[in-house]
Specification:
With 372 residues, the protein is of the alpha/beta class. It has helices at residues 70-79, 124-134, 141-154, 168-181, 205-224, 250-263, 275-284, 291-297, 317-323, 332-339, 345-351, and strands spanning 13-15, 30-36, 38-41, 44-46, 52-56, 62-66, 83-86, 92-95, 97-103, 157-163, 185-189, 191-192, 236-242, 266-271, 305-309, 326-330, 355-357. The longest helix has 20 residues, at 205-224.
């Protein structure tokens, strides 16, 4: 999750201390002088002590970063006619944040419903999540997703692992909105679920697999149509997204694993989020010693993949995630309300598991990653 400003394809930057928008001259090379802070590796933060200089091309790509001699380099650039923006003493610039788990389809009711348990008949999913998601279609989803995108960018999130809904047409509206807006860079999934969700929103297994494959192909085509330079990371890419074990049959999970392998797709889901979810999934998949074991058996723990929450892990589950190259999305605000436990982040990192940070809107009540 840490970002490194030496990476030349850092296309986005954001203010934190002042929350001001940086508006450089359009289409021209410019530079920023001041406290430019990044984290090249875990437990290492640089840029707080001395000013640095970052030079940005007219296309928005970082050309160079000067950690030493920044003031002299800035003066030299100004002498050659390059605009240099000087940050104030209380300002600092950082790379854009990466939100590893966010439900854009739930944006409309963000901040409500967090008083309900996750799985009850009148709980968060039944009363809030499912109705909000099922209401989205090709006509209504665009407005919700554009609001989500604007909120993310406004709060410094420039890359996100996004959950759409189980509706193919609605999920495609997120792809269109990202392409239109030019960001945030997104891995986006059409949610898959073929049981234990409301009539009218539940999919058949065949429909879910067919729509998921169609979404994968169309999302890849939308990114290819952008004509990005060779070697560029995608602006938008598909993710195989089974909601979680309770809403997916073994047949669906097996089919999704096959699609992930066929199309070399990222996988995201929820894992061991709450005690009631864990008990339910255990009753549905009694042949597996843990949720992670079930995901692994169906080919859904793979490189790359990411599981959100992971709070109530069974012995050996973290090691299984590590073995399969699966990362965790730590969602502290929603864990407070639904998991009633905290993920032992330091322990996971020491084990070698990759851990990212997620807002989990709307289970999390606020889009800024600074809140998380």
């Amino acid at each position: 999750v840490g970002s490194d400003l030496s990476v030349p394809r850092c296309l986005w930057t954001c203010w934190l201390a002042t929350q001001m928008a940086l508006s450089p001259p359009a289409g021209t090379t410019y530079a920023v002088l001041g406290h430019i802070v990044d984290a090249p590796q875990l437990d290492v933060v640089r840029g707080l002590d001395e000013p640095s200089l970052v030079v940005v091309s007219g296309s928005g790509e970082i050309e160079s970063v000067h950690r030493a001699g920044a003031a002299d380099a800035a003066a030299s650039l100004e002498a050659s006619g390059v605009t240099v923006i000087r940050l104030g003493q209380r300002d600092f610039l950082v790379p854009g944040f990466i939100d590893c788990h966010v439900h854009a389809s739930q944006w409309a009711y963000m901040g409500t419903g967090i008083d309900r348990p996750l799985m009850a008949d009148d709980g968060f999913l039944a009363k809030y999540a499912f109705p909000a998601e099922s209401a989205l279609n090709a006509q209504t989803a665009g407005e919700v997703y554009r609001a989500a995108i604007d909120d993310m960018l406004r709060n410094g999130t420039t890359t996100a692992l996004v959950w759409g809904s189980a509706r193919l047409d609605a999920s495609e509206e997120y792809v269109k909105a990202v392409v239109e807006r030019g960001g945030p860079r997104s891995l986006i999934g059409k949610v898959s679920m073929d049981r234990h969700c409301p009539e009218g929103y539940v999919e058949t297994t065949a429909q879910s697999l067919a729509d998921t494959e169609a979404f994968v192909l169309r999302t890849k085509a939308a990114n290819d149509a952008l004509g990005l330079p060779a070697g560029s990371p995608p602006l938008v890419a598909p993710a195989i997204t089974p909601r979680f074990l309770p809403t997916c049959t073994a047949e669906l999970l097996r089919g999704l694993g096959a699609l992930a392998e066929k199309h070399d797709c990222f996988v995201q889901s929820h894992l061991s989020e709450s005690c009631d979810e864990l008990a339910f999934s255990s009753s549905l998949f009694p042949g597996f010693r843990s949720d992670a074991a079930a995901f692994a058996a169906f080919g859904l723990l793979r490189r790359p993949s990411l599981m959100a929450h992971c709070v109530h892990l069974q012995p050996g589950e973290a090691e299984l995630l590590l073995q399969h190259g699966c990362a965790m999305a730590h969602c502290p605000t929603s864990n407070f309300f639904f998991a009633k436990e905290a993920l032992p982040v330091r322990q996971m990192l020491q084990l070698g598991v990759k851990v990212g940070l997620g807002t989990d809107v709307a289970g999390g009540y606020s889009p800024p990653l600074l809140v998380s």
